[in-house]
Amino acid sequence: MDIRKINEDYSVSPQIEAEDVDIVSLLGFRSIVCHRPDREQADQPAFSSIAGRAAQLGIEVRHIPVLSTGLTDEAVGSMIQALDDLPRPILAYCRSGARSTKIYEQALLPR
Questions:
Q1: What pLDDT digit, counting tens, does each position of 22-46 carry?
Q2: InterPro entries per the record (predicted)?
């Protein structure tokens, strides 16, 4: 897994698999946020498979799909809410980690 730490509370990674959730748990993450829409690519796992394994391990999850075309106000609002609600540290993922980084930056901007 290629996990990039943004700060103590938030890290990003490229796509994870259900079996990666065990590693995520061992690394101490308490929440996972997926910014990748289901079926963006044929070979990616469905969010439900990640969420199912996370539930078994007591990790909270949130699905905030962000299209590769860009962020929406709705997605940023959902991310702000997730940051308020979810236990930390949080691991967020998308295809490469870029959308998960960008939405976090946008969620931290003054409103």
A1: 999 999 999 999 999 998 888 999 9
A2: BLH_phosphatase-like (IPR005939), Prot-tyrosine_phosphatase-like (IPR029021)
